[in-house]
Design goal:
By secondary structure, the protein is mainly α. The protein contains ten helices and no strands.
């Protein structure tokens, strides 16, 4: 359900307030972390009293469920926007998708969702609330209505492997901690990811993963 659709409290003012709360939650999850972003802190960030926020979200569980949906809606919007511009003339479509997804991983909605996934490892309630959103995003690689334009490359196992390789390597790289020479190391890894994805996408091509 879209985080802004609440029949019981669907006045324009109420919807605006809920959206403000959920934006505050997303921002704090990304900036200070899921556990540090208490309901009281979220209420303060949204410029509400704790009592006013309780009118919209009576419990942590209710707030988290709505926040997950809100963040996923925002991720979908960014993904759709990233898929709109076509790859520049002469640029490989897979390389364009890799660059676009790398940028997305550093936006607030993607950073907030990554934080929730990390926290969910030891939080059963959060893990349960995230499951549907994670499944939807994973299946979207196959060419769903919201995400397909950016990542479609065919449905056979080879192309699936190319999508998974690019996606999970980029997500791991975004979460990793490089303590020295970060720009150069990151650039080399991104170049290798692009070459590996091209090798999988182009049947019959023989290429080297590492070039001098």
């Amino acid at each position: 359900m879209d985080a802004r659709t609440y029949p019981a409290k669907a006045t324009p003012k109420s919807l605006r307030t809920r959206a403000r709360i959920l934006d505050a939650a997303m921002r704090l999850f990304a900036e200070v972390g899921y556990h540090a972003a208490t309901n009281a802190m979220i209420a303060d960030q949204a410029k509400l009293t704790r009592g006013a926020m309780l009118y919209h979200f009576a419990s942590r569980e209710e707030l988290v469920e709505a926040a997950v949906t809100h963040i996923e809606v925002e991720r979908a919007r960014l993904f759709e926007r990233a898929a709109d511009p076509a790859a520049a003339a002469g640029m490989d479509a897979a390389e364009h998708a890799i660059d676009a997804y790398w940028k997305l991983l550093h936006t607030r909605p993607f950073a907030a969702f990554a934080e929730l996934e990390a926290a969910a490892r030891t939080d059963p309630m959060l893990r349960e609330r995230l499951a549907a959103a994670q499944s939807a995003f994973d299946h979207a690689q196959l060419g769903g209505d919201r995400f397909g334009a950016l990542v479609q490359a065919g449905a056979d196992p080879r192309f699936q492997a190319s999508r998974d390789l690019g996606r999970f390597l980029l997500e791991g790289l975004a979460k990793g901690a490089m303590t020295y020479d970060e720009p150069a190391r990151r650039a080399r890894l991104l170049a290798v990811v692009k070459r590996a994805v091209r090798m999988l996408n182009r049947k019959g091509d023989i290429q080297e993963l590492w070039t001098e």
